[in-house]
Amino acid sequence: MSDPFNPYAELYINPQGPGDKRPTAMRVLEDSNLLNAWPDKVVMITGATSGIGVETARAMYATGAQVYLMVRNPEKAAPIVADITSSTVGRGRIDVIEMDNDSLASVKRAAREFLSKSSRLHVLINNAGIMACPRSTTADGHERHFGVNYLAHFTLTLLLLPALLSSSPSRILWLSSPIHRLSPPSHIPPPPSPTPYDPLLAYSRSKLAMIWASNHLHRLYHARGLRSLALSPGAVWSENLLCYAAPAQRAAWQSDGEMMRRMQNTAQGAATSVWAATAGVWGEEGRGGRYLVNCSEAGPGEGDDGFGANCYDEEGEERLWRVSLEMVGLEGPVV
After folding, report:
1. CA atoms of 54 and 56, how far apart (whole Å)
2. Strand 42-46 relative to strand 93-98: parallel, antiparallel, unpaired?
3. What is the per-residue pLDDT for 243?
4. Residue pair 47/125 in contact by the 8 Å Cβ criterion
5. Residues lower than pLDDT 70 in the chain
């Protein structure tokens, strides 16, 4: 682990499928001696009732932090919380707040509820998401991928900025995807009612928007101790995320030997999120506004381990920020 910005490089060479030698979220913590080392920290995770969200929550609880899970269905969260607290070496606490990313009113209520409980927030992990769903809109009339994956998190982040800045050094993580490279920059925000509708392109737009928001946010606030990072968790077979995929598409993916070798289990898929949230290199002496993959800072490239040419675009990022404020009915925070 000689390179602090790429500590597990050798373990990501020649992947062999879920459960191989690639690190898990808990290993990231153990290697950095962070088990129960964060009793004074507050962490928030969205979408923590399935897939890598559960394992991210488990690892952040193991740091000893106060962890808030923002979930659509609190009843579904209850057994997950019980399992984490009974089986994980953590001395923190988990609170659950109801939040539906399909509704900006729900997001705003959830932010208010959190702020009524805590004035501090050290790590915000924007993890919740949907993928490849049919043409549909949110309660606010926004294309659903853009609304659920991006606008809900943009709104939550904006409302929580005062808590994040008052708790600095602090971090915001935006879970993106290698598919961001498919989206033309001119398609952000989404053009009205594109025909025909391409679910994967819509998903790509939302994931590029998350990267752009992260980059712009970091430029605005890094001098005040806030680091914003976008990341790809890598390939994980999540039934919840893939619930809209057609059977033929799922079968094609499962018959692709190279794709299946790159697949990770959920504990491995949470590793980059946990590394980004905790690694010292992204702290006071580190840097942000970057795109991460495989527990490392990604470089340009065509494969899943690199970022697309559309990843960094200051003009587009600033334009998206202005339009997003209008779309969610908020003004830029004065903090």
Report:
1. 5
2. unpaired
3. 62
4. no
5. 1, 193-194, 238-245, 250, 253, 284-286, 333-335
Looking at residue 81, its pLDDT comes to: 97
Q: What angle do CA 166, 105, 51 make, to 5 degrees?
A: 75
Q: What is the pLDDT of residue 285?
A: 55
Which residue numbers are catalytic? 176, 203, 207
Q: Domains of the chain (ranges plus CATH)?
A: 9-328 (3.40.50.720)
Q: Which long-range contacts (CB under 8 A, 24 or more apart) does 76-79 make?
A: 76/49, 77/48, 77/49
- pLDDT for 320: 95
Write out the two tokens for 263: 């697949």
Residue type for position 292: L
What residues have CB less than 8 Å from 170, skipping those under 6 apart?
Answer: 121, 122, 123, 124, 164, 225, 226, 227
Q: What is the pLDDT of residue 242?
A: 63
Q: How far apart are CA 127 and CA 163, in angstroms?
A: 19
DSSP code per residue over 44-90: EEES-SSHHHHHHHHHHHHTT-EEEEEES-HHHHHHHHHHHHHHS--
Which residue type does 296 have? S
Considering the entire predicted model, what is its pTM?
A: 0.95
- Determine phi and psi for 55, rounding to 5 degrees: -75, -30
